[in-house]
Write a structure and sequence with these properties.
The structure is a homodimer. In chain A, 41% of the residues lie in helices and 19% in strands. Chain A has helices spanning 33-46, 64-74, 85-99, 110-129, 144-155, 164-167, 173-182, 258-271, 296-312, 315-333, 340-352, 383-386, 399-407, 409-418; strands spanning 24-28, 49-56, 78-83, 133-135, 160-162, 196-199, 204-207, 237-244, 247-251, 254-255, 276-282, 288-294, 358-365, 368-375. In chain A, strand 4 (133-135), helix 5 and strand 5 (160-162) form a beta-alpha-beta unit. Chain A is elongated. Chain A starts with 23 loop residues before the first strand and ends with a helix.
Chain lengths: 421, 485
């Protein structure tokens, strides 16, 4: 991790820029065309020093050295890189997994969970290097701008927030390339993907191009983290996930760190074509959008956690948990991570899954995950009660008569009223 | 006597009973039937022209009474039985060992006449004639058979499908939805033939006893309800066979399945045997409605489901009746290994149980309906709908069908899915259903707004700044308070 130092080479501009004056801005930097152009744009418009920040959340950061040179060539005074992978999985992904948070039936929140940790790290960097502002390269049309900025507000409301996409005149790739040239920013002549993607340890998302018509099936060559189920192995693979207190701790008997566990399950899941979803979703900013997501390891883990809960949670608990999970997903999708409601729900979820310890064996085959076996030392399932064979005497069939008469009493009273009795 | 009775019963569900049996007062005028029907179903269904039309047809063909000849053995027993006295009991009859034994048991214990009732809800009724003879050989005075398949799918399954009701993440409620319609038909038969009691062969350990009896309570609280399993000493198959022999009930020496199953047009369930340990994977040869995904075709199959106002109306351009649509999709889905689920569930009667379910056509329809809603429902609507769906599933699972809460939710669901019309193309492959395409004339998705290309001007990116500042104001205020600002 490159620690933020006092940038010797960067010039401090005391005069303002075109739009105002800021001293030092921490910019979420990816090395791509957009964020490379934002560096000179910030300096020109706000007369500020720019500190680039790159978080490794498993998107494939590439060459770190190359990135720093690139950032400086754009005009940044320094590049700070933070490896946030373990923290990302442990403190952001795992709580969502435990809660069973799924947005609008399908979305496993890959991008939603990543923005808060990146934004938080930016706030920390800003504090460490004395910056008075933060900036991001999110467009004004998406959810991510909201997720970044809600986190900025929650953690340091004094920071100014600059969102170039909402202010500048750059309309697309052509304008951006032109602006880069004008400001002597080296632009690598890579062909931009026709898709807009976001990738991290949990998932990759695809939007744009032919996906913009929900009547179109995705192209086979678009996918990146998983093989086509038709090309997946013809032999199913079984694996056993170990879970402790609602969170996965390893598989096939190996205990693994959160990030390592996810990485390995991504590989196995990807090989079997697990975790592809295609959806039209309601964005927070008001429109519907269509996206395709690949969440191989996460889909395996979600299946395992839900399956084990079937042994350890009673009826009322599961009911309430699943109702809260809907709300939890809404919060996370909207970027309301640093929020007392999300935090309170986590307290609920942590308590609720205290006994959810055990293992689940899953069968992976041609894009499907199915349960093959589950066990828990805290299982509330008792064969001696549910079995068709005569049981332990805990359950007396005659009791059911009284139960039904009382459980059905409101029904009977209403019916009696309707029948004039 | 019989014909006079039939004529006075304007209800099309009138059952012609054999002469010689004196009937207690039976009031079955159209007015009463019509009124109670409306109360049960609310105005929602009756106001939908297509549905009410179909319902009339269904009612006319609803109950086909198996008219029995006068059976000298079925003498009216005026003396009571061991446990009490009932006049006439309508028994939910399957022809299996259990319900065959219940017939003599009821007569012996309650000194009553037994009218057997069999509902066809797609379980595979088999030979109707054989069933009647079997019922009578057990001592029943008659067998009434009702073909309820269309009504089952249209009035019970489709509302649940529309609501998106899934119990405990996985269960598509196949058995839960069937019990109310069977029980309701039994209440109607009881009314028509003047029975004072109803009986079922559900054990005292399951959900079905609750589902049957809640329906009995809701529709006619005056009926006595007899649940032999909760009362008798018969502990299992051996006892049952012995009892049958003692009472001259013919028992067919078929090998009993090691699994306990329930089947209808929507699904088949499997419980028992090795499934009783949740650590055991189901055996490959247990499944009935679907092939193993590994044996499913290597080539995916695409099919397009047509949906109108939240309910499926056909596929691949063919409009089909509800039951026919489901039957055909069961076949296609079964061929591709679609719809297998394995779960440990919380029963209403308090214990956890493990069951495996096959719902091939239903899984396809569920996928299609949810997918189309993504085009037609806005954010807040989908949120609330999905929250209510959880509760809806709880109600249906518990047998609370004839319940104002379920009915009110149906009114909500009907309104909510008014615009959910269009088609969804699905890809079936090796046990999976995935969306390939969706379209709707009422789609709220606009490419000119969400596209990365410059759009129609409806969406101005600069607006987002104001939106975020206001949407985030509570967050900022709280943070300012924390920072002492």
């Amino acid at each position: 991790m490159a620690t933020p130092s006092t940038p010797a080479g960067a010039t401090t501009q005391t005069e303002g820029g075109t739009r105002g004056k800021l001293n030092k801005v921490v910019l979420a930097y990816s090395g791509g065309l957009d964020t490379s152009v934002i560096v000179p744009w910030l300096r020109e418009n706000y007369g500020c020093e720019v500190v680039c920040f790159t978080a490794d959340v498993g998107q494939g950061v590439g060459e770190t050295e190359g990135l720093e040179a690139k950032a400086k060539a754009s005009g940044a005074s320094e590049l700070v890189i933070a490896d946030l992978r373990e923290e990302f999985v442990r403190d952001y992904i795992f709580p969502c997994l435990r809660a069973g948070a799924v947005y609008e039936r399908k979305y496993l929140l890959g991008t939603s969970m990543a923005r808060p940790i990146i934004a938080k790290a930016m706030v920390d960097v800003a504090k460490a290097c004395g910056a008075d502002a933060v900036s991001h390269g999110c467009t004004g049309k998406g959810n991510d701008q909201v997720r970044f900025e809600l986190t900025f507000f929650a953690l340091n409301p004094k920071l100014a927030v600059v969102a170039p996409w909402r202010e500048w005149d750059i309309k697309g790739r052509e304008d951006a390339i032109e602006y880069a040239k004008k400001h002597n920013v080296p632009v690598v002549a890579t062909k931009a993907s026709i898709y807009s993607r976001d990738r991290n340890l949990w998932h990759i998302s695809h939007e744009g191009d032919i996906l913009e018509d929900p009547a179109n099936e995705p192209a086979k060559d678009m996918f990146m983290m998983s093989v086509d189920p038709e090309d997946a192995p013809n032999t199913p693979e079984y694996l056993t996930i170990q879970i402790e207190k609602g969170l996965p701790v390893g598989f096939n008997g190996k205990k693994l760190s959160p990030a390592t566990l996810l990485e390995e399950l991504n590989e196995i899941g990807g090989k079997h074509g697990i975790g592809r979803i295609d959806m039209v979703e309601n964005r927070l900013v008001g429109m519907k959008s269509r996206g395709v997501y690949e969440t191989p390891g996460g889909t395996i883990l979600a299946s395992a956690c839900r399956e084990l809960e079937a042994l350890t949670l009673d009826r009322e608990s599961m009911q309430m948990k699943d109702m809260l999970a809907l709300k939890y997903a809404e919060l996370v999708y909207a970027g309301r991570w640093f929020d007392p409601l999300r935090e309170s729900m986590d307290a609920f979820m942590e308590k609720m899954t205290e006994t959810t310890t055990g293992e689940v064996t899953l069968k992976l085959y041609k894009g499907s995950v199915n349960v093959a076996s589950r066990s828990s030392p805290n299982s509330l399932y008792r064969q001696d009660i549910s079995s068709f064979e005569e049981g332990s005497g805990i359950y007396d069939q005659a009791d059911a008569a009284g139960f039904i008469r009382l459980y059905g009493l409101p029904t009977r009273v209403r019916a009696m009223h309707e029948h004039g009795l």
